[in-house]
Target: Trp operon repressor homolog
Amino acid sequence: MAAQPEYTDWQQILDLIKDSSESGQHEMLLTMLLTSDERDALIARVNIFRELLQGDLSQRQISQMLGVGIATITRGSNELKSKSEQEKQLLAMLLKN
Model:
């Protein structure tokens, strides 16, 4: 019988990140798991959601401000459209400084 990977679904990864956070190891874990480009993409994604939820700028303005393609903004917008108002409000609260 072939060996099976230890981690097979997203919830296991979320649990790993949660456990690493509780033990103060989340920075090390995420830095090791994500390449520099992936970390930059995650920063952009967070900023995309923040700007879309604020609603002050057009998608084109967000694209120019963040230096990402309009398609990247559209993907973020489409992801937000699939969420409930409550989920959007929770995300907006998380992303406030």
